[in-house]
Amino acid sequence: MSSSSSSTTTCSKSLGKWFPTATVRKTIALNPSETCSLLLFYHYVRPSMSQARADHLKTFLDKMTAETKVGGRLRCAQEGLNCTISGTYSQVRDFSDRLKTWGTSSLPDGVKGPFEEGVDFKYVDSLPPSRAFKDVKVLPVTELVFYGVSESSAPLSNGGVHLQPKEYHEKMEEDNTVIIDVRNTYEADIGKFNGQEKVGGAEYIDPKMRKSTDFKSWLSKEETKEQIKGKQILMYCTGGVRCERASALLKNEMGDNVKDVYQLQGGIEKYIQEFPDGGHWRGKNFVFDKREAFGVKSMEGVGGVVEGKKKKKKKKKTDEEEEEILGNCCVCAQKWDRYIGKKKCYTCGVPVLMCDKCLTLKPDKTPGRKLEVRCTLCKEEGVEVPAADLELTANGIGAVKKDSSQNAAAPSVLKWGGGQAKEKKEKRKMKRKMCKFGAECTRTDCWFSHDTCKVTTGNSQKKFNVDS
Ligand SMILES: [Zn+2]
Ligand SMILES: [Zn+2]
Ligand SMILES: [Zn+2]
């Protein structure tokens, strides 16, 4: 309690309509000689906190992240926390130690604070200093993962059974089993659990999502129900948080029509830590931090610049060491699994893979070539209406065409501030609709007008994803 005598200023700056009360603060970069550690965790507080208590938690985090000098992304809701924290080895541990103490001061003996016990803190150490976030963002949200679902309609207590990686691994080899990827297709494009299929294990299912809210519509389809009927269900995501609500939703929807439902405790992140040879994992694990994505052989991730050819040759890997590349460049279809250049699908806005050669040719800015820059889903579904010509519906969950052209439109889109934003901005100015939630709106992808604050940070929206 002695060290933090100097007062720390936490500037609360508006992040525009999506996060009017978010806190953003630059962090001090790590020294080149220091290594970076990441702390990933989520925790649902049950029962949910009151709004006043959640506000208190946010204020505590504003101050505490400044004092511990960590960077990161913190989603803060009445239902709990979902965070990715970066800093030195001791900074991130200082953060978790302090978080454990929150809300414990006036508790009776034996009663624990909301984060004091049972939080699965995952640490990733010895990363290059460039893997640290350059700022910290504390974002008040209504759901830790935006499914558009309330606790009462899909209680977490009804979710799938948590299995540790080793138990989950064994389940993957059982028959009459399906394994549902609870991530977006652009994540699954570069890595997934399908190695078990070779040994007659669980059948891999991609719900073909552009964002988490698509899960509900996938689940409600008759063909989905037919596909998973009578099966043992395994679900997984990057760090586990997305499966919590998704597994409860699935159990609600399917009831006795499926066998037991399991979710991977700690997600892919933890599984890869426990299976250094990758187990049944293939390819790279897409992550929402500066590692970008990592494979079994390179836990530090691939984030940053693309290695030059010369450099690659120097440390030539043996075939055995060479990691499997599952993705393809969206333009030329060569093997490629790097999300660089911030390229987005022309028709739905999700990130697309574009190889270094194609990047230099700028197909996304070349008239007549723009449709080449589409994600795997849009190509598969024959979607041709530009994302900029779509209007979001149902407060950001769905999308519809603005005109009556015959071309197919994406059923849902990801909205970003950057990229093709200029044109969209103009269009939006023309037809401003007020969001019914106004400044209270916490939707991460709401693009209705929230008059009380203006959009201040163009393309920072994509950085808000925290999945741990
Ligand atoms: Zn290419
Ligand atoms: Zn697309
Ligand atoms: Zn809104």
From TrEMBL:
UniProt xrefs under Gene3D superfamilies: 3.30.70.100, Rhodanese-like domain
Segments forming domain Rhodanese: 173-280
Lineage top rank: taxon: Eukaryota
Family matches, as InterPro entries: Rhodanese-like_dom, Rhodanese-like_dom_sf, Rhodanese_C, TrhO, TRHO_N
A matching Pfam family: Rhodanese
PANTHER family: RHODANESE DOMAIN-CONTAINING PROTEIN (PTHR43268:SF7), THIOSULFATE SULFURTRANSFERASE/RHODANESE-LIKE DOMAIN-CONTAINING PROTEIN 2 (PTHR43268)
Protein known as: Rhodanese domain-containing protein
